[in-house]
Design a protein that fits this description.
By secondary structure, the protein is of the alpha+beta class. It has helices at about 110-130, 140-175, 185-190, 195-200, 200-215, 270-280; strands spanning about 15-20, 20-25, 25-30, 60-65, 65-70, 85-90, 95-100, 100-105, 175-180, 220-225, 260, 270. The longest helix is centred in the middle third of the chain and has 35 residues, at about 140-175.
């Protein structure tokens, strides 16, 4: 066996598969290329002890300057205990609201990373503008691109960690969870904060929550995309229409702010997002 070669050096993700790997003392042992000495070849440890005793096919890939190994295996998953509780999650740009409060998915450390990412993107753009295609071949360009890829990976890991912990908390504490079935792509095209919507990763949140509810025997309820959770009064059911609707700028006709809900039917007042959570919660049985 020789050293594996990737199909394309320009591809953002390079990888290959092998069936010549095994688990030894909880570590992954890959087949050693003949050109590498035994002293230089080591078993790979994981951040947690590998649960499988053997593997059939191992996927190895390089992405954004780091190497990863994917190991498929089967595991029996026990259902979570029933809590007889229900909740609803209202998706917003940068944060999610639910019955216990709010989770920020764009914390300060992420904002700092995105500013740095924007800085590196501009640096690369300027180099390409000045030097054209030759810019991509310079060592300096490569160094900046490596820093950009590093920060992308950091940002993705931080946000993924937030979503994983939040979804685990939901399936641990609630039997019924209501979320909106939003047309994310449409929102990204029409929303003035489209980048924020993209970073809030609603589609990933829904995907993670869906498989966890399926794993642990919890019920995920999707509100129809036409359900007026933001415009509906949680107290009397009055739905704002036309010039009465709440927008990103609030409501000019009545002089209300974008984050407050005032019912023009019964006078009920609440935070806009908290009102939306109560409306979604009403869909749970």
């Amino acid at each position: 066996m020789g050293i594996p070669s990737f199909k394309s050096k320009k591809a953002p993700r390079q990888g290959f598969k092998t069936d010549r790997a095994k688990i030894v003392n909880g570590r992954l042992r890959l087949d050693r290329p003949r050109s590498i000495s035994k002293d230089s070849w080591h078993d790979l440890s994981s951040y947690e002890v590998l649960k499988m005793s053997e593997v059939k096919v191992v996927s190895i890939f390089k992405e954004k300057g780091a190497y990863y190994v994917a190991l498929p295996y089967e595991e029996e998953i026990e259902l979570k205990a029933k809590t007889q509780q229900k909740t609803a999650v209202d998706v917003n740009v940068g944060h999610f609201n639910y019955t216990e409060g709010q989770i920020n998915i764009l914390p300060a450390k992420l904002q700092k990373l995105y500013k740095r990412i924007k800085h590196y993107q501009r640096m690369l753009a300027r180099k390409r503008e000045v030097n054209g295609k030759l810019a991509t071949k310079s060592n300096n360009y490569f160094a900046v691109r490596t820093k950009l890829q590093r920060d992308y990976r950091k940002a993705a890991n931080i946000q993924n960690d937030l979503l994983q912990k939040f979804t685990t908390k939901l399936v641990n504490n609630y039997d019924q969870i209501v979320i909106e079935d939003l047309a994310v792509k449409e929102m990204m095209m029409t929303h003035v904060a489209s980048k924020g919507m993209q970073r809030s990763l609603f589609s990933k949140f829904r995907r993670i929550l869906t498989y966890k509810c399926d794993w642990y025997g919890k019920e995920l309820i999707l509100a129809d995309k036409t359900y007026p959770s933001t415009q509906r009064c949680a107290a009397c059911g009055y739905v704002k229409k036309g010039e009465e609707k709440i927008t990103l700028q609030g409501n000019k006709k009545h002089g209300t702010k974008h984050n407050e809900y005032v019912c023009y039917g019964c006078g009920y007042k609440n935070d806009r997002d908290e009102n939306a959570v109560l409306n979604l919660l009403a869909l749970a049985k």
